[in-house]
Amino acid sequence: MDSSGVSFSVLMVTYNSATYLREAIESVLKLDYDNYELVICDDNSKDESWEIINSYNDPHIVKHRNTTNLGEYNNRNNAINRAKGDYIIFIDGDDMIHPHALQYLSAIVVKYPQCAMLLGHGVDPKTFEPVVISPENFYRYEYLDKGVFAKSFVNLLLKRSAVIEVGTFDDTRIKMGDKYIQYKVGLKYKSLVIGAGFAHWRLRPGQASEFVTNAFKYTADNNRIVIPLLDAPVNITEAEREQARVSLYRQYIGFLLRQLAHLRFTKVLDLYRAQPIPARYFKLLFSRRTPDYFSVHPELDPLKGALA
Fold first, then answer.
1. Considering Cα of 188, then 303, then 220, then 291, what sign does the dihedral take?
2. pLDDT tens across 173-193, in order?
3. Contact yes or no for 189/159 (Cβ under 8 A)
4. What residues does each domain of the chain span?
5. β-pairing, 156-159 with 87-90?
């Protein structure tokens, strides 16, 4: 396939986004690649967001306004369901995409059609060249090593068919949806790590990214993502899977103990009741931490570095 045959859906979810919305829309309309649609789903904003959206009549734009406020991830699902492109990227109402992003990404996905997710890492000698990550190694990076996630939500490109296959954002209690969707896709399909970023995101008060600063909410949300997926059907050994459980529960127990040391008894009890720890893992209190997987097995590390 010629790269110009790759179609993209740029998905923009907005809610009271008027301050930066024109910049976000204009950045998409300045793309030097034509085979894309900009799907804007406004979540019943109370400011001028919808008026700004309606002021554009570009043929690339598909507009929709929810009659009631759905919440962030129901609205993202709404945008996904309206999309028609081969690949989707989220550029929200306060983000900006680089003008050459889709031209660059189209060439990449043509060369690596087996990959359902592109993870932009920014400048990194380990990803001087694109690196394919199998579901097995995605599991090892996330549960047994330092992780392989995209630098931010806007530097994440997803094959639309794969997102639909894994069920989109089907647990809307989860606030860290970028992490959730990367786990779901990465544990089922091959991913591609690239040493580039292709968009810019703003950090503003009230964003989901601020959520991570609340330790209890972050831990509860993280557990909702990673505990159920411990048993994802990837081709790893049972010893590796058990080590993943050990690593996860050790971190969780350590967090609870640190909070108890600060006398946060009620919050610790509420969290533990919601997300209990199997009794056999309490022995981890007296065990030594296992080294990162790829520091023990460097010969197996796909990211050992083109410039190493």
1. positive
2. 888 899 999 999 999 999 999
3. yes
4. 3-203, 213-300
5. antiparallel
